[in-house]
């Protein structure tokens, strides 16, 4: 379904990004696995993809760094000649109630989650406009839609991603580029591993399906949005949350 497509997925060394990378590669895409912290994990994802007959490479870049994102996308275009799909998945949390939230914790979450998404779109758009095609998928969150106690920074960043998604859809649509967001609910990854049993139980009470999702649940939606089956969908936020945002 995605044969000959070149895909960049940010933060693809683990969790949801890893699942998206594996799923897109399974559909035939050639995947660039961006990472920032752990090269070992990125290599593991590359190896897993290759063992399944797919193609992948790894690229270290801190998405909050504007110039580094420019270099990453230039290198990808130089290497492959095109960039067809961009998945903005890299994200962090630094939770705390507003009265205790440090300025640097607000800034760093906004810098990775929102500015990082801006940075990669800003530098990919030129190539996609030239190609007159492209699919951009941004990973937002149910927190960006509903808000969440203790996540002023994270919810603001993910709400920002939604505004950015809709604006990019409007700006880029006339050149055949679609821009959509996925808003996951609670998904079992290292990000949610830190939650106490009490918080988990309370969260499950807000989920119609009564359980956390799996990274593959998000990856399945990303595969759909990346495919030509989603050619007439843009500017949308698709909730994959077991029924939290209804
Ligand atoms: P995770 O397991 O903590 O993974 C986060 C990923 O982001 C890692 O691969 C990490 O790469 C990467 N990353 C962090 N800072 C980066 C930076 N500055 N530059 C490049 N990469 C960076 O989290 P996850 O649960 O898979 O989350 C993936 C996305 O889904 C995030 O945007 C998150 O906000 C969103 N989301 C998650 C949930 C959930 O319940 N898990 C719910 C809603 C939305 P390194 O390890 O290489 O630094």
From TrEMBL:
Homotetramer. This is 3-oxoacyl-[acyl-carrier-protein] reductase. It comes from the Bacteria. PROSITE patterns: ADH_SHORT. InterPro entries: 3oxo_ACP_reduc, KR_dom, NAD(P)-bd_dom_sf, Sc_DH/Rdtase_CS, SDR, SDR_fam. It catalyses: a (3R)-hydroxyacyl-[ACP] + NADP(+) = a 3-oxoacyl-[ACP] + NADPH + H(+). NADP(+) binds at residues 11-14, 62-63, 89, 154-158. It is an enzyme of class 1 (oxidoreductase). GO terms for biological process: fatty acid biosynthetic process; steroid metabolic process. One of its GO terms (molecular function) is NAD binding. Pathway: Lipid metabolism; fatty acid biosynthesis. The keyword Calcium does not apply. Its EC number is 1.1.1.100. Belongs to the short-chain dehydrogenases/reductases (SDR) family. Pfam families: adh_short_C2. The keyword Cell inner membrane does not apply. Keywords: Fatty acid biosynthesis, Fatty acid metabolism, Lipid biosynthesis, Lipid metabolism, NADP, Oxidoreductase, Steroid metabolism. Residues 5-185 form the Ketoreductase domain. Catalyzes the NADPH-dependent reduction of beta-ketoacyl-ACP substrates to beta-hydroxyacyl-ACP products, the first reductive step in the elongation cycle of fatty acid biosynthesis. The active site is at residue 154.
């Amino acid at each position: 379904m995605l044969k000959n497509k070149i895909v960049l997925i940010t933060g693809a060394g683990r969790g949801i990004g890893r699942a998206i990378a594996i799923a897109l590669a399974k559909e035939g895409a050639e995947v660039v696995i961006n990472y920032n912290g752990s090269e070992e994990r990125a290599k593991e994802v590359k190896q897993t993809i290759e063992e399944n007959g797919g193609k992948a490479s790894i690229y270290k870049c801190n998405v909050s760094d504007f110039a580094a994102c420019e270099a990453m996308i230039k290198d990808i275009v130089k290497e492959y000649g095109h960039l067809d799909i961009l998945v903005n998945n890299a994200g962090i949390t630094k939770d705390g109630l507003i009265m205790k939230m440090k300025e640097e914790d607000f800034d760093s979450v906004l810098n990775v989650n929102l500015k990082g998404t801006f940075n990669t779109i800003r530098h990919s758009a030129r190539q996609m406009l030239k190609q007159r095609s492209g699919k951009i998928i941004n990973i937002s969150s149910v927190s960006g839609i509903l808000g969440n106690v203790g996540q002023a920074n994270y919810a603001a960043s993910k709400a920002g991603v939604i505004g950015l998604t809709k604006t990019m859809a409007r700006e880029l649509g006339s050149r055949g580029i679609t821009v959509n967001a996925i808003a996951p609910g609670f998904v079992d990854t290292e990000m949610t591993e830190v939650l106490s049993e009490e918080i988990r139980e309370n969260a499950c009470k807000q989920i119609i399906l009564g359980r956390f999702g799996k990274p593959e649940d998000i990856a399945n939606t990303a595969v759909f949005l990346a495919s030509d089956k989603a050619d007439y969908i843009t500017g949308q936020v698709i909730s994959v949350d077991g029924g939290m945002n209804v």
